[in-house]
Write a structure and sequence with these properties.
- The chain folds into two domains: 3-122, Sandwich (Immunoglobulin-like); 129-394, TIM Barrel (Alpha-Beta Barrel).
- 22% of the residues lie in helices and 27% in strands.
- It has nine helices and 22 strands.
- The strands form five sheets. Strands 1, 2, 4, 5, 8 and 9 form a six-stranded antiparallel sheet that branches. Strands 12, 13, 14, 20, 21 and 22 form a six-stranded parallel sheet that branches. It has a five-stranded mixed sheet with strand order 3-11-10-6-7, with no helix packed on it.
- Strand 8 (88-90) and strand 9 (93-100) form a beta hairpin.
- The longest helix is centred in the middle third of the chain and has 19 residues, at 234-252.
- The protein starts with 9 loop residues before the first helix and ends in a 13-residue tail after the last strand.
């Protein structure tokens, strides 16, 4: 076997032969053993390329396993095994194929006395799907409260999202602030302060009746200051989280509630991952883009994993069990004419084509907001038309897990 066949060798990686892996890709147990693929925490399905090789079907034609490549480097004279299977060797490089048969799979790589362990997920029933979420939501609830609306959908904002749901089937996840900020100089009108404890439960039946497509989630205590949880303790974050959960369930009912999917500014301490998971959080979405020499809206995740997520849909944080998702588009930042080209780029890449993660911010819909965008609704319409025409299924990312029944 020729060295060029080992696409996971250091030479191959430097040449960019394996898509979606960052330079700091290795899962290292010692200096002598390094696993290049798969990435620890990778979320895999049959339409991916590397490290996916193919699907194993049962006698009924349904998939029973996902075959993947495991490769890396070890001392040339070491006997390398992956889950007990001997690997092919070529100098330092090693490679073999294994089958994933469970949703959660442990991979144990041994080179003589050295050992490293990885965990990967197999999304057996994965289908092309999209989710849409609205960050910074609070204005619509204040307007309903102050106007005494007879129905939720008499409100300008909720009425328009219902029209889009009826047109495209889109599911809407609204990420809420608990209260408005004291400084609202960004508004063109006078508005009284407001918090969720003031919102009436008279609409609870409407929330319940529309919970198949409309859900409410925690986002943050308030909009300002930015990055409110960057240095906050887990206790502070969970206190705000529980307060929000209690109010949502009070006025909208259990059916309308979902745990957090996006934390304000995507900036929390990694020590808070496990406490959030204990509150039912299964997924968190962020930008994972480079800015000012570092990563932005990345939950203070290390550079290696942030880089991986910048090129892939998902990554499992093994310690907490939370899956992180990369947003494909923040709609209020993309001009109307750029919506389709941006999405075309996302779905052309096998590593990001399966799940289209869309988000925008509520304030830009309102004419009383100084940075109001008159074409904001048109941008949503264009994005939803794009995914709908290509057969993407609307889902909530965290109900069920990653928008997939049965995994």
């Amino acid at each position: 076997m020729q060295r060029r066949e080992f696409l996971c060798s250091v030479t191959g990686m430097a040449a960019g032969l394996s898509v979606g892996l960052p330079l700091a890709f290795a899962e290292t147990a010692t200096e002598g053993l390094r696993v290049n693929q798969p990435f620890n925490g990778a979320v895999l399905h049959h339409r991916l390329k590397d490290p996916v090789v193919g699907v194993v079907d049962g006698s009924d034609g349904k998939p029973i396993a996902l075959k993947i490549k495991v490769c890396g480097e070890a001392p040339p004279d070491a006997a390398v095994t992956v889950n007990g299977t001997a690997c092919r060797r070529n100098g330092k490089a090693f490679e073999t194929e294994i089958e994933l048969r469970q949703k959660t799979n442990e991979i144990v790589v041994k080179a003589n006395s050295d050992e490293t362990r990885l965990t990967v997920l197999w999304l057996k029933n994965s289908v092309p799907r999209y989710r849409f979420t609205v960050d910074d939501t609070i204005f619509c609830l204040r307007e309903i409260h102050r106007n005494g609306c007879k129905s939720l959908f008499d409100d300008y904002f909720l009425g328009n999202i219902r029209k889009l749901h009826e047109k495209y089937g889109t599911k809407f996840a609204l990420n809420l602030f608990y209260e408005t900020s004291e400084d609202e100089k960004h508004l063109n009108v006078e508005r009284e302060s407001f918090n969720l404890s003031q919102f009436s439960d008279r609409y609870k039946s409407e929330w319940r009746d529309n919970a198949d497509w409309l859900r409410l989630l925690f986002h943050a205590k308030r909009e300002h200051p930015g990055e409110p949880y960057k240095d906050a303790s887990a206790e502070t974050l969970i206190t705000d989280f529980v307060q929000m959960e209690r109010e949502i369930k009070r006025f909208a009912g259990e059916e309308a509630y979902l745990p957090a999917g996006v934390i304000h500014f995507g900036t929390i301490r990694p020590e808070t991952y496990k406490p959030l998971a204990a509150q039912g959080v299964t997924t968190l979405s962020g930008y994972f883009t480079r800015r000012n020499g570092g990563y932005y809206v990345h939950y203070q995740m290390d550079d290696s994993r942030s880089e991986y997520l910048s090129n892939n849909d998902f990554l499992l944080d093994v310690d907490s069990g939370i899956v992180f998702s990369k947003m494909d588009m923040v709609i209020n930042t993309v001009p109307l004419d750029a919506v389709v080209p941006t999405l075309e780029k996302a779905v052309a890449d096998p590593n990001t084509a399966e799940f289209v993660d869309l988000m925008t911010h509520e304030q830009y819909f309102w004419s009383f907001y100084k940075r109001y965008m008159p074409d904001h609704w048109d941008r949503l319409d264009r994005a939803f038309a794009f995914v709908t025409e290509r057969g993407y299924k609307p889902v909530f990312i965290n109900d069920p897990f990653l928008g997939l029944g049965g995994g």
